[in-house]
Fold this protein.
Amino acid sequence: MIATTRPELLHACIAVVFNPHDARYKHLDGQKAITPFGKEVLVIADKDVDKEFGTGLVMLCTFGDKMDVVWMHRYKLPMIEAMDRYGKLINAGEFNGLKAEEAKKKIMEKLETEGKVVKKEPLKQAVKVHDRCGTPVELLTSMQWFADIKTTGKRIKEMAKKVKWIPDFGISYLIDWVEGAEWDWVISRQRVFGTPLPFYYCEKCSATEAADEKELPFSPERAQTKACKECGGALLAETSTCDVWVDSSITPLIVTGWQEDDVRFARMYPTTLRPQGVEIVRTWAFYTIYRSGVALTSVAPWKEILLNGNVLAPDGKKMSKSLGNVISPAELLSEYQTDAIRQWAAMSGAMAKDRPFSYEDLKFAKSFLSKVWNAAKFIQLNLGEYKKDEADVAKATIIDRWMLQKLNLAVREYTDCMEAYDYQKAVYKMHDFFRHDFCDHYLEYVKHRIYGKDEGAKKGGLYTVYTVLESSILLLAPIAPHITEEIYRDVFSSGKTVHKARWPEVVLNVEGDIRGVDVLREVITLVRQQKAAASLAQNADVAKVIISDKKENLELLTPELLGEIKNIVKIKEIETKEADALHVSLL
């Protein structure tokens, strides 16, 4: 007894399959079974049968699903075409010409009349359907062109290992695909538009022949009349087009001038980087390594491959018109602008991993760019006629040197992240540095000097804000090209573009012990908190403040830093006392 959901395929049954570990059917291995239509078929044992599903027996028809194709080839069984390209049954006797659903009903009626149906019950199952119209997809047979990949799998894997995969686990997708390949690459498609396949085939003996080089680019309409070299029959020009991956699999060769410019090709191939989606590793990456590398040059097509994931809907599902969860890019652009979206994309998640779309993250990205814009306008307003002079670094205070050392660290770490393609980490480092260290702290600390009349102190501050903003704009330019371009042109250049400027370098001659600035930051934060608690304005003068802390921390508060604290938070007198922990008292 066999359970089936596809009685309309009974006429194409070619075997019955069971699991070799299923004791119920071991005695049937190699025997013959008779289908309800009176056809004799072989009984086969195969490990891929789930003995717990249904009755443990599987009716192998050509074709109910992919497994039927695998079994047919595995056991070299005959193939019976069950239906034509219009979804109508063929080779089905009295049921010929019926659509699948109609045939299913009529076949069941006949089997019930003959007493061959033991039981019927409803069943939920996954059925492959067309992604647009929802029509169930059927497996059909047709004449196609294939490229050999099964025998080249080892070479493909060896070449893939010569490429640096980012992230490194990305290569596992390709290795799994190679090792799981069950048939060769079907390179032909029956489409109106596409690259023609430059081949002929004999209408009598099916021998094939490649087009002459002078016939390229090939066109079936302009094909020559030829005779088959094997049998003398007429050669017909192939009218099928190439699979799209046939063209895209040689993009590294096209851009480097292969077969056209030997000097350029020698200089540029292999290319440096292939950025692509993780979901097409088994197609674009695989076929490019196979064709450009293994088949045509014997050299891996790129040095590195960078894999990105996909943006999912906010609910974590794939965006789909049918599900109504698609986020419109046009609507996002009108509200958030390009740079915020680019920044969100950079910071949105780990490489090769899908990420749900988040409006909150996009708002956060937009708010950071607003912070950059406002800081730039404040600095531009206060620079006045200042022109950067490297000699002004000598006028830097300890707080300036603290800020410039923070900048040097940011430049190094951000550059390392960008070179490692870790854009998420790079953006978050820039957020922490520019938003917090620079805007929330340093700009507040330096205002009293910028507004003051001491030209020496002012120049050290102006040099620092100029240098930090300029370097930050250069670092952010790849992520936010539009806002950085406008700021750079307005503040730092007269018509020059930020995208041709040199990458920022570390600032020299700013070494020294800056640990005291960390204590200063904590003291200023506590003073501001106590002012707020006492309903005092932040610019209100305070007669005296007592700073209590551990001896080693108090020793870091040099007279210069104590003077800075007085100026920043408007304190007339500061007294320090040893204590177990930091505490500030306003008197």
Remarks:
- The chain has 17 helices and 20 strands.
- The radius of gyration is 36 Å.
